[in-house]
Design brief:
3 helices, alpha+beta, disordered N terminus, globular
């Protein structure tokens, strides 16, 4: 969107959505390793990943009604979620949200430990978020009081 001022050249006004996309489009430092989607699966919504320390993996897995692709190594588990599943959500620590499922610090890619039967690799993000909040004792962000 451009606005023309009577006193000067046109200025561009950036919305919050534009600023979020600018941040997301910045390249990560170091070699880029991205969790792959298994062959034959489709990602119509794009994809990101949520990682948790390995001890959280089995309890989370057992609490989810539907599980998409899950990757693991000895230290972390990663769930594939639709892109932008972090919008308006504060994923509780010790979870880490990875835009684009990029893993810049990983020496190698983790192994696929769960693949759903269908063609879509996503774990629904809201049940994953709620299960993680429950395991960590965190109040979901939409349930917290607003401080003025």
């Amino acid at each position: 969107m451009r606005r023309t001022s009577a006193t000067g050249p046109a200025t561009r006004i950036l919305s919050l959505d534009t600023l979020v996309r600018v941040k997301r489009d910045r390249p990560a430092p170091g070699p880029l390793r991205r969790l792959p989607v298994p062959e034959g699966m489709r990602v119509p919504l794009g994809y990101d990943a949520v990682s948790v320390p390995a001890p959280f993996g089995p309890p989370l897995l057992s609490r989810l009604p539907r599980v998409g692709c899950v990757y693991a190594d000895p230290t972390h588990w990663w769930w594939i979620v639709p892109a932008d599943s972090d919008v308006a959500l504060e994923w509780p620590a010790p979870a880490h949200y990875s835009t684009g499922a990029v893993m810049p610090d990983a020496p190698r890619l983790p192994g696929l430990i769960h693949k759903p039967d269908g063609m879509i690799p996503y774990t629904p993000p809201i049940p994953l978020y709620l299960a993680l909040c429950r395991l960590t004792g965190t109040t979901p962000s939409w349930s917290r009081p607003i401080n003025a």
